[in-house]
Fold RNA 2-O ribose methyltransferase substrate binding domain-containing protein.
Amino acid sequence: MKRVVWATRTLLLVMTARDFDARRWVRALRRSPVKVVFPSGQVVERKPSPVKQPRKAVAEASSREQRQKQPLQVPASQTPSTWEESGLRYDKAFPGDKRLSSVMTVVKSRPFREKQGKILLEGRRLIADALKAGAVPKIFFFSRLEYIKELPIEKLKGVSLIKVKFEDIKDWSDLVTPQGIMGIFAKPDHAKMTYPETQLCHTLPLLLICDNLRDPGNLGTILRSAAGAGCSKVLLTKGCVDAWEPKVLRAGMGAHFQVPVINNLDWETVPKYLPADTRVYVADNCGLYAQAQAQVSNKASDYGWVCDRRPKLHKYEEEGEDLESRASKGWLPELEVQTYDSDWTEAPAAVVIGGETHGLSLESLQLAESTGGGRLLIPVVPGVDSLNSAMAASILLFEGKRQLRMRANT
């Protein structure tokens, strides 16, 4: 046993010595000699090698050197090019946030809308047209950040941006398929708006006056036709539906920002917005008074274009006296009746369109008489009721445009 133990101990000592020598030689190989002494006695000094840095530090140092060598590039324009660079921020509405509901309650009511001086615009295209025309935004509610990034950056400074759920926008939207963005704007002033240059180049000496138009869809369609025909202005008298109502805006398809719309006017102030020597024509309502005036041969009544139903002159119907007797006494303004395709655009012209429910007012006929205007008849087949007010306005406006272009060419 002693011999075995002694042999084992000797073997362990030998192995430990060998391991120690191996580790010592490995450390020696890793060392960098300071001096090298050759057998001839020559001594060569070695410079210490630089301490190796980690790869990450080496990469950062190299990139730093490259940046220092490259000249500093300053962008030509100091304005931010992206939404993030502009420093814009938005709030996120949490459950129970009533900012959207409180604002919608105000802008969807005409009295509050007129008192607060704010309107509601919905949809990316309508909002973009409003911003291009110079309308001043106040608040934007959106469901996706991409919708805000599509808008001009310079127009969003100072505007409250609130991100809400799409379900909240859908609850307050009047659209069948909401587009996920709603904007609250200050009520535009026609004198401060910047209308498209192409629209201004094609403007004609032709105006439109809306009298007692109550249907939002009809008014929006009429505004769209007025912009397409090149009207210089659209005047809305008291009694008409608000031009900035959401339904009118939706039917107008951006026409509010292409042609000046002047809202809520008294008849006493209407002549102030008309150019000098303007003749005012009223769209005939196919009434008894027009039939009484069309007595000359080759007039509209000879072709059955004038129906025999009672006219919708709401100011007249409040009295009990017969309309024909009043016309014979000269109580009604005497206006010449002519077809819509006869020449009536010799001077700047204004066309009055009455509502389907209340029709023309007495003030509109008096204005037409004082300016030397008349009644314009649109021929329809006998037995057919009067045309829709939006359709009648479109026919008269584009007929006026055709006559003005023919006169310009000749």
Remarks:
- The chain has a mean pLDDT of 78.
- The chain has 15 helices and 14 strands.
- Residues 197-409 form a domain with the Alpha/beta knot fold (CATH 3.40.1280.10).
- The chain has two domains: 91-188, 197-409.
